[in-house]
């Protein structure tokens, strides 16, 4: 089989992975997936520090071969200070779409010792799906604790991971 015929038979799919971590601190808002969550600690960052949307943004950009969130929205640029991460994600997704890609599915994990996120997962899923103009069935949100181990377990930080499958 020639290289050309193999390429013609292979579906144009790409997988992207994103990960993000932000410190927790009092007097900051806690926003996950575009949803504000009532909690005594919030995430610290240059933008609104939405760790989930940052991981999703990196997954999308990586799958499309378009770099990463830090290249597109550098934390040294004052225009992104306090930015709504939904806007950052929408801007990055527009670039991904312009490059000819569409999302097939998105699978995400938020790691946080507290607050317990089970009751927020449907709202976060809906928010992410709406932000990306997807059906909710294309988005999955999981939540894990740190089992009192490491920065997540000690409630010093939250992390998020995202995996996306794109099709041209």
TrEMBL record:
Gene3D superfamilies: 2-C-methyl-D-erythritol 2,4-cyclodiphosphate synthase. 4-CDP-2-C-methyl-D-erythritol 2-phosphate binds at residues 20-22, 46-47, 68-70, 73-77, 154. It holds the Pfam family YgbB. The record marks 46, 145 as: Transition state stabilizer. The keyword Metal-binding applies. Binds 1 divalent metal cation per subunit. InterPro entries: MECDP_synthase, MECDP_synthase_CS, MECDP_synthase_sf. Keywords: Isoprene biosynthesis, Lyase, Metal-binding. One of its GO terms (biological process) is isopentenyl diphosphate biosynthetic process, methylerythritol 4-phosphate pathway. Its cofactor is a divalent metal cation. Pathway: Isoprenoid biosynthesis; isopentenyl diphosphate biosynthesis via DXP pathway; isopentenyl diphosphate from 1-deoxy-D-xylulose 5-phosphate: step 4/6. GO terms for molecular function: 2-C-methyl-D-erythritol 2,4-cyclodiphosphate synthase activity; metal ion binding. It catalyses: 4-CDP-2-C-methyl-D-erythritol 2-phosphate = 2-C-methyl-D-erythritol 2,4-cyclic diphosphate + CMP. A divalent metal cation binds at residues 20, 22, 54. Its EC number is 4.6.1.12. NCBIfam families: ispF. Homotrimer. Involved in the biosynthesis of isopentenyl diphosphate (IPP) and dimethylallyl diphosphate (DMAPP), two major building blocks of isoprenoid compounds. Catalyzes the conversion of 4-diphosphocytidyl-2-C-methyl-D-erythritol 2-phosphate (CDP-ME2P) to 2-C-methyl-D-erythritol 2,4-cyclodiphosphate (ME-CPP) with a corresponding release of cytidine 5-monophosphate (CMP). This is 2-C-methyl-D-erythritol 2,4-cyclodiphosphate synthase. It comes from Gimesia panareensis. The gene is ispF.
């Amino acid at each position: 089989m020639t290289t050309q015929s193999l390429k013609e038979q292979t579906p144009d799919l790409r997988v992207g992975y994103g990960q993000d971590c932000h410190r927790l601190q009092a007097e900051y808002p806690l926003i996950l997936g575009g949803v504000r969550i009532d909690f005594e600690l919030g995430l610290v960052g240059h933008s609104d520090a939405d760790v989930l949307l940052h991981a999703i943004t990196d997954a999308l950009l990586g799958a499309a071969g378009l770099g990463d969130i830090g290249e597109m929205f550098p934390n040294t640029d004052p225009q992104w200070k306090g930015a709504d991460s939904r806007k950052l994600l929408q801007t990055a997704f527009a670039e991904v779409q312009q490059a000819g890609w569409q999302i097939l599915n998105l699978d995400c994990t938020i790691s946080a010792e507290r607050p317990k996120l089970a009751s927020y997962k449907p709202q976060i899923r809906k928010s992410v799906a709406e932000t990306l103009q997807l059906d909710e069935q294309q988005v999955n949100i999981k939540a894990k604790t740190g089992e009192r181990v490491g920065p997540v377990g000690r409630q010093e930080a939250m992390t998020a991971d995202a995996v996306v499958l794109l099709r041209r």
